[in-house]
Each structure stands twice: as structure tokens, then as C-alpha cells.
Amino acid sequence: MSVVEISGVSKEFKGGTVALQDIDLAIEQGEFISLIGPSGCGKSTLLRIIGDLIEPTGGSVTVNGKSARRAREDHDYGIVFQDAVLYNWRTVAKNVALPLELAGWDRDKRRRRVEEMLDLVELRGFGEHHPWQLSGGMQQRVSIARALSFEPSLLLMDEPFGALDEMTRERLNAELLRIWQASGSTVVFVTHSIPEAVFLSTRVVVMSPRPGRISKVIPIDLQQPRTAATREEPRFFELATEVREALHLGGLVEVTA
Amino acid sequence: MTLALGRRAGDWAPALVVAIAVLGLWEGIVKGFHIQRFLLPAPDAIWRSFRDNQGTLWHAGWFTFQEALGGFAIGCGVAILFAIVVARWDTLGSALMPYAIAANAIPIIAFAPITNAWFNPLNKTSKMVIAAVLCFFPVFVNVVRGLRSVKPQQLELMRSYAVGELTVFRLVRIPTALPFLFTALRVASVLAMIGAIVGEYYGGSLDSLGANINQDASLSQYEKAWAEIAIACIFGIGFYLAVALAERFATRWQPRMETAGS
Amino acid sequence: MVRAVGVNRTARRAALLLAVLAVLWGLWEGFRALGTHFNWQHPFPVNGTSMPHIHDMIWALFQHPNSSSPLLLVILLKAAAFTAKEAALGFAMGAVGGFVIGAALAHSRMLQRGFLPYVVASQTVPILAIAPMVVIWFTSPQVHAPAWIAVAVIASYLTFFPVAIATLRGLQAADHRALELMRSYAATRWTVLWKLRFPTALPYLFSALKVSATASIVGAIIGESPSSIAGGLGGAILNFAQYYTFQPQNLWATNLIAALLGIVFFLVVVAAEKIVVRSAPEHVA
To answer: Which residues of chain A are within 8 Å of residue B156 when distances are taken between CB atoms?
Structure first.
């Protein structure tokens, strides 16, 4: 049974915009799926539908065999946004502990888990800092630590590294893969960046706009574990080209009508 | 937003110089030009009057301060409650805001004679009401703003945790609104004192500062009047600093806003 | 199409305004009715004197307060104009003065450190407490200025400091990237001031002006009171306060006019802001 099953999902916003039309996708346990496409292709909307933050106008979504709503109520997933969305009035440690507090964990258990998480994202010793004292990249790592703190089986990420510079981005990509493998979770990752999608994923889902739909699903057969060297392999370049061409076909057609 | 003034002692030197210079100049001009005392008493005359009347001065100051404090507590408390209710219903909130802002423009102080008619002018209540109404609008407007300034992504995050509205309110909206609240509380502290003192000008117990200032000014006891004004300033500044201190404590997680260098 | 939408929005706003007024009217009359019926003494004695009917208050505007005087409305409008003149003069002086001082402070760190603590502290001082003294001082035989000048001075004082602080803050709030752009154009200090810093400061300035507009009116009314300057609203308030038990609606009517004056002043600044700063952002009061 797939972790996420999306069948026939559509979403129409008020005013007539068709953000998504007839989306079918099955995501298996342990996969790393990237959703990539130009603005307006509905990738962020699809992510939010999986997380039950938006309701589809048609079709169905199941997560771990339950309805998306049930999955949300059962805390089956963690979510990371492009903006770290940390609370300035809490220390880093308290930020990471937030979902655990909400789940009713006792203090010692929380403390231990927070330490584990900060170790995982390599921010040991920063627990007592406040968010504004950290760089953008570090804030995002806290955000990831928070999302993983209750060890969800599913991780939803909406362009989490979009606001960071290229070098930080590449480093965080490598770290994310390490965390993914260590935690064994399934990841759905929205991105604008072709190299990022190819580097991280087991499958790349290319989407196109007007109306939002999946134009192509590309399996990425690069070796795990992936390193900086992977980016320089010829196969990497081939796959990136394949993604790029799918994008061009799908939504970036320049028509002189 | 508080302007962050230099914390090093040296930064305060120019301000000290100005203070000494102004006081010295004041004293010099008054004495040197033999300015009549009712135009502008000399600082040392005021100081003497202050020293001589300390007991009554502090007593009157405390009396008036109690009115200000009471009005402050009532006005701000009611404003916060109203703001929480209004912020809950977004459309109602945005519809009412312009009216609250306009209501802030009404010279509330003009109602002092009416509150004196409603309540015994010798009682503290009549002045507390004025102070309370003065405090209400700034606090109301700001708290509503603060409660509604939560970023949509913060709400999405909370939704992903499937928590109830009350928890979202407690964990997100209230801390976000705190800085806005305290800005308004600082303004309200000054308004409360003003409301109390000016309310007393329209009629008040002789135990109060305002009535005393009025009386002393009309009896040409200008040094005493200025000493009373000094007491009013001391209480006023003290109140403001107390609120500012509370703000520092409650929002100590806030990154300090420094003024940009030119 | 756009025209229709505009009319629609104005109609909705007007309807909302009427609704708000109607609710307030209802609350007043309701409270009064219940209070008079049940003879409430708390929080204050509710009866026909302490809470006149709202329609009586409005009706009073079209009566003669006593046999020899004109309509109350005429008296009050004249008084309002008198007060407005004082307040406007004070407001203008305070705004200009505040702006100049704020700009001067913005340019010199040393001046800032010397004077800023007092400028900030002055905000915490209950300035209005001095109002009666200032009026007495100006009208004394030595200085012998007309009383309305004293009142204008009070109004200007209340305007001066908020405007100075807002100017200082606003002039320093320019984005440093915009400043760097100006440097790349080798712009002079004056150019930077007028083309960049000043426009950046405008929202802060208007925030302060909106508060000051009301403060000037309040300062004018308070300033008029102790010396019973007969011509203005402050004097009218004192006058009708004396006869409150006989004609309570007159005092209320006066307050109505005073409230309208405050709102009008405020709206004038808002309108000015809309014209000067094409899109007026909402700012923390």
C-alpha cells in the first residue's frame, strides 16, 4: 500500500482558476519525490492538499491509508515552508519542541528528543539561541528539526531552500539526503530548481500549468548515497536535460499565435 | 519601537551637558534680568518650594496617580477584551477599525465636566473614567492590529499540527500581539496621567494635583505651582518607565531595533 | 464598470456608518430606559439629567440657549471656528518646527545624543498639565499677548515633539540599498534628503500628524478653559457645565460639536496624506 495515494484530484479556486486537474500519483514508502514546474502549475497547492491544508474540489487523497484529514489529526506528517516560520519568542530548542508540547510529551522526553534532532541537523549547542541570531540556512535546519521531531513517516517540504544561496543550498541538499536516509521517511519536495530535484529525488514529477497537471514522471536512477561528485556525473546531466525538456514541453512553450 | 540610545556612559555625556547648560542658563537669565517670579521662577526657588512642601506634594501626587492607575487598568483591560472579541471576526474587525481610529480623534477631555456631573467631583471615580476612556482607543486599535498581524504560514503550520483555535490563540496570536500591546500601553500611561490631572482642572478634590495647580496659579504662588507640575512630571515619567520596563521584560525575546546610522 | 464599483463601495461604507450610529444610539437609549426605569445608581445615577435623550441633544442645537442669544448651533460653530483657528495655527507652527528640529537631529549624531533624551522624555511628561500656567503667563500684564496666542503655543508644543521624533525616525529609515544607489549617482546630501529620505519619512510623519491634529484641538480646548476665553469651545464647555443641571442637553450638544471638530481635523490630515502619499499605509497609532 502506498504511503500517499492521489486519485483524480482537482482544485478550482474562487474566480475560476483551475489550479489542478485530474492528478493521479502514488508515492511509495521511503521515496523522495520532487514536484517541479513553473509558477502556477499547482505544485504547492498539491502539497497542501496532501497535508489537508487545502481541500480538493474533486478526487481523493489517502495518506497511510487514511483520509488526508485523519492523517493530519494523527500527526502523520511534518511540514517545512520556504520561510522557516520560527517563533521569535521561543528559543531554538523550544521551537523544535513545539509539536512535542502539542502532542503532550513530558519535559524530559522532549528535551532528549530535541537534543537528538539538533544533533541530526548539526546544530548542537544552539538550543538556547533565538531564531534571529541564526543565519537563514541555520533557521531552515531548525525548521527541519522541528518537522522531524515527532518522527513522522511523511515529510512535506515547500521550496525550503528557495531563499538561500547556491552553496548553502547544495550543502543543505546533502544534509537533507543524509537525514532522509537516517530517518527512513518519505519525502514530498516542491522545488523550482532542476539540479536540486535531480540530486535529491528517487522520482521527479514534472508539472505544467493552465490547468495544473502532471506532464511527466521521471525516475532518477543515480547511485545512493549521493555526494558532490554525483553532480558531476554524465548521467546527472542526462537526467537534468530530460527534466528540462519535459518542463519546456509542458509549460514553457513560446507560441507566436 | 523604542529608540535604542547608547548604553555606554559616554553616550550620555552630551545629554548631561545640555541639561546642566539649560538649568544654568535658566537660573542665570532669571536672576540676571530680574525676571518677575510669576513669569518664570528660578530653578532654585522652585526647588526650595519643592523641599518645603514635600509632604503635601507627594500626597497630592499619589492621589492623582491613583486615579491615573485606576483609569489605566480599566481602560486597557476593557480595550484588550474588546480587541480579542473583534479580532476573532475578521470582517467585523476591518469594518470597525476606521471608526475606532476616528473615535480616537475625539477630544475626550471635553467630557470631563460631564463625568464630574455623573460622579462626585471629589471622588477619584470621575477622573478614572476620563483616564479609562483616553486609554481605551489606542490600546484597542493596536491590539487588534497585533492580533491580526499573524503571518498566514504560521497559521498553516498550526493547522498541520491539528490544534484547536484556543491553542493557536495562546501560542501564536498573543505573543505576536504583545509588542503592539506594549507600544499602546506606553502611550496610554501618559494619557492616563494627563486625563487625571486635566480632569481635576474642571473640578476636583483639594487632595489632588490638578486642583492644587489651578489654585496655586490663581493665588500667584507660582513656585509651588511649578513644583506641583514637577511632581506631575515625576509620576508621569515614573509610570511610563514602569510600563517600558515591563515591556522590556515581557518582550525580551525581541531583537533590539537600532536606529539606522545616517 | 469601475464607476459602479466605486459607488457601490461608498454606499456600503455609508450603510455601515449608519449601522454603527444606529447601534450606538440604541445602546444609549436602551441603557437610559432601563436605568431610569430601575433607578440604577451605579455606576452613576441614571436619569433624565445625567443621560438626556439623544434627540434632545440634537434638538438643543436648534434652540436659543436663552432669550437674547442666537441659535446654539450658531454659537457653537463660531466657537468651533475660534478654537480651530488657534489649533490650526499651533499645529502648523509645531509641525514646521518639529520637522526642522527632527531633520537637524537626523544629520548630527552629537546633537542627537545631546537632545534626544529630552525629546523622548517630553513625550512622557503630562504636558497638558502646564496649559493653564502658559495661558496665565501669556496673558499677564508683562507679556500682554492675546490669549489665543497662548493657546496656539500650547497646541504647537503638543505637535512639536511627536513630529520631531517621527521626522528623525523617518529620515533615518531609508533602505541602505537605496542609499547606496544614490551614492552611485554621486548625489549631493541635499538631493538624497529630498529625493530619498523625505519620501521615506512621509508615512512616519503623517502618523505623527494624525495624532497631533487631535492633540492640538485638545490642547486648544484645555488652554481656553482656565482663563475662560469666551470665544472658543473650551469657554462654551465651561459655560454650559455651569448650567448642566438645568439644561444638560446643551453641554452634550457642545461635546458633539467638539467631537465633530476633532474628527474633521483628523480627516483633513488623512485627506492630505492620501493626496501626498498616493497609497497611505496604515501605521501603528
So the answer is: 48, 53, 79, 81
